């Protein structure tokens, strides 16, 4: 059985990483247009670099929760028949032990050089304009995919989605494309579709199994069901 799991900010909420869209429509008190678009970066690079420096520091003091750990357990049991596709820029899946993982919206712990396109691992602040370890220019930005930019790994993700038997969406509002379209693609190719989310989202197609609640409870329970059925 091939499984694709798509995760969003909701899976990390119980680890203490705030989700994207609070009721005020702001991300950590900032307008999305200011901190998650290339135009926002052009307007005020210092503010954007400082924003992601703060996010990187905040995530460093968090820990994977039972939902991340359950997915790592599932990979331990079924290996590369599980692909986790995350929209999250935190590293909680890999810290829980997941290896077969695509960060489609990039990673806080990686930088990208606007001069030479290197993508070095990065744990420090970027606002002081450090040099790129490859070319020496001071043009590093967070390797995070902003609105209007091309997500990573799309070919690999689409191949896995059309070939999977089960597609599971966890902790995502389903408002950001192309990720939001994967559930319909999976259904069109015959997969069973499951949603585990705090509140039911408004998917483009009816899902086979919708469970409302906290990821920290729903995901371990779902993983146990899958493992029991093998
Ligand atoms: P979103 O904030 O738009 O939606 C989060 C969803 O999670 C909501 O539907 C909410 O009901 C649900 N949720 C909240 N708490 C939950 C819980 N405890 N258990 C289960 N579900 C819960 O997030 P999104 O759909 O991922 O889109 C936002 C974009 O913002 C992503 O592309 C991502 O790059 C970025 N982002 C990432 C992080 C992170 O890396 N942790 C955090 C904030 C934003």
From TrEMBL:
Kindly state which keywords UniProt assigns to this record, in alphabetical order. Answer: Cytoplasm, Metal-binding, NAD, Transferase, Zinc
User: Is Hydrolase among the key words of this record?
Assistant: no
Q: Which Pfam families match?
A: SIR2
According to UniProt, the name of this protein is NAD-dependent protein deacylase
Cell location:
Cytoplasm
The residues the record assigns to binding substrate are: 52, 55
Source organism per UniProt: Microbacterium jejuense
The active site is formed by 105
Which coarse location class applies to the principal site listed for this UniProt protein? cytoplasm
Q: Which InterPro entries would you find in this protein's record?
A: DHS-like_NAD/FAD-binding_dom, NAD-dep_sirtuin_deacylases, Sirtuin, Sirtuin_cat_small_dom_sf, Sirtuin_class_III, Ssirtuin_cat_dom
Reaction(s) catalysed by this chain's protein:
N(6)-acetyl-L-lysyl-[protein] + NAD(+) + H2O = 2''-O-acetyl-ADP-D-ribose + nicotinamide + L-lysyl-[protein]; N(6)-succinyl-L-lysyl-[protein] + NAD(+) + H2O = 2''-O-succinyl-ADP-D-ribose + nicotinamide + L-lysyl-[protein]
Return the SUPFAM superfamilies for the record.
Answer: DHS-like NAD/FAD-binding domain
Indicate which residues the UniProt annotation says bind Zn(2+).
Answer: 113, 116, 132, 135
């Amino acid at each position: 059985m091939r499984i694709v799991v798509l995760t969003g900010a909701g899976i990390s909420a119980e680890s203490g990483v705030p989700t994207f869209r609070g009721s005020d429509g702001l991300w950590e008190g900032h307008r999305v247009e200011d901190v998650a678009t290339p135009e926002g970066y052009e307007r005020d690079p210092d503010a954007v670099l400082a924003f992601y420096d703060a996010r990187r520091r905040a995530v460093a003091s968090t820990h994977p929760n039972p939902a991340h750990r359950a997915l790592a357990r599932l990979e331990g049991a079924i290996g590369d028949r599980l692909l986790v596709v995350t929209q999250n820029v935190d590293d909680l899946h890999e810290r829980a032990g997941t290896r077969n993982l695509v960060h489609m919206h990039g990673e806080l712990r990686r930088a990208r050089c606007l001069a030479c396109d290197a993508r070095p691992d990065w744990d420090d602040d970027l606002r002081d304009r450090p040099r790129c370890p490859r070319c020496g220019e001071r043009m590093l930005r967070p390797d995070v995919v902003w609105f209007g930019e091309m997500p990573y790994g799309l070919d690999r993700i689409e191949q896995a989605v059309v070939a999977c038997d089960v597609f599971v969406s966890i902790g995502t509002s389903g408002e950001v494309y192309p990720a939001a379209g994967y559930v319909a693609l999976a259904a069109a190719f015959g997969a069973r579709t499951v949603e585990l989310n705090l509140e039911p989202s408004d998917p483009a197609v009816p899902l086979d199994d919708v469970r409302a609640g906290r990821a920290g409870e729903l995901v371990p329970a779902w993983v146990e069901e899958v493992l029991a059925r093998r």
